[in-house]
Amino acid sequence: MIHAYAAHEPGGELKPFEYELGALGDQEVDIQVEYCGICHSDLSMLDNEWGITQYPFVPGHEVVGAIAAIGKDVTRLKVGQRVGLGWYSHSCMECEWCMSGNQNLCLTAEATIVGRHGGFADKVRAHQEWVIPLPSELDPANSGPLFCGGITVFNPIVQLDVKPTERVGVIGIGGLGHMALGFLHAWGCDVTAFSSSPDKETEARKLGANHFINSRDPDALKAMENSFDLILSTVNADLDWNQYLALLRPKGRLHLVGVVPSPLSAQIFPMISGQKSISASPLGSPVTTSRMLDFAARHGIEPLTEIFPFDQVNEAMEKLRNGKPRYRLILKH
Asked: Residue 7: which H helix or E strand, with range?
């Protein structure tokens, strides 16, 4: 019997909930949850913002724990091994995307908390290909957010072939952005933090920003026109995208990993004349996730976290909804 916390209606309180996992599949793995990060996507799913939530709903897709059981065809993982699990829990392993190492683009990929129960529980189940060993150098208490927020901002560095000589801006120094600063700084880039909170400047510089710009200051933004090779937007808010496109150098790119609420609006002529582009990406593949973990271990990169015991799950979710976490919240068994 699995003991979890579930909501039974949109925006509902998370209450103790029990369920059976059923027989373990041949290529499946059960993880004994030690820590589970809380992502803004958990909140969006709780509120059914995307119209895909099924209730009772058990959130949680930033899991770190030890393998409790493995299916008979699982060979690369072993019981007792410490691992992590992120947004995806299965992909078909047969389509063109899976076969080319892009399992995160599989059209039938299964998400850990969509149509199944997630990691706000004592155990969670996943297919072996998305269960990633955690390097021993990383602190398991702080590593959960790397499996969602971390890989979300690391994946573009790989996919876009970002060079260490490039000048990169990061919009939004929150749950995603603060990790982006660390990765890009360690990658060798000249990094600028854009934030509407001037009080974050000192911390942003400690996290890896070489420069800081108050995004509410139009003069400061104007002064940086034609400066950046890449601007990474991590915010879930509508901004003046033309303003940021103007900051890009020719061939520059505005890349979004935050789920903005409205369709994008941008003037096409500056994009044509400067050969600029707008793009987006999801989380990374299992291989890219492993590379990220190794990179984080090598450079001592970890998210800044606040830890709550599991029985304070509703207090933690309330802080995410109405507070200002700095920067990721984690549940601990």
From this structure: none
230 close to 253: Cβ distance less than 8 angstroms: yes
CA dihedral 121, 127, 133, 139 (to 10 degrees): -20
Going by DSSP bridges, is the β-strand pair 211-214/228-233 parallel, antiparallel, or unpaired? unpaired
Residue position matching structure tokens 């109405």: 322
Q: Is the peptide bond before 250 cis (omega within 30 degrees of 0)?
A: no
Q: In the numeric block, which tokens belong to residue 89? A: 């829990």
Token readout for 36 is 């589970």
| CA 302/CA 296 separation, integer angstroms | 7
Give the chain's length. 333
- Going residue by residue through the chain (333 aa), what tens digit of pLDDT does each one get? 999 999 999 999 999 999 999 999 999 999 999 999 999 999 999 999 999 999 999 999 999 999 999 999 999 999 999 999 999 999 999 999 999 999 999 999 999 999 999 999 999 999 999 999 999 999 999 999 999 999 999 999 999 999 999 999 999 999 999 999 999 999 999 999 999 999 999 999 999 999 999 999 999 999 999 999 999 999 999 999 999 999 999 999 999 999 999 999 999 999 999 999 999 999 999 999 999 999 999 999 999 999 999 999 999 999 999 988 989 999 999
Question: Which residues, at least 6 apart from 240, have a Cβ–Cβ distance to it below 8 Å?
Answer: none
| Distance (Å, whole) CA 297 – CA 295 | 5
Tokens of 299: 């450079």
**Listed residue (161, 183, 294) closest to 234, CA to CA:** 183
Q: Which domains does the chain have, with CATH numbers?
A: 2-148+284-332 (3.90.180.10), 151-280 (3.40.50.720)
Residues 6+ away with beta carbon under 8 Å from 149: 37, 39, 62, 175, 176, 179, 303, 328
* Phi-psi domain of 22 (left: phi exceeds 0; alpha: psi -120 through 50; beta: other): left
CA dist 2 and 257 (Å) reads 33
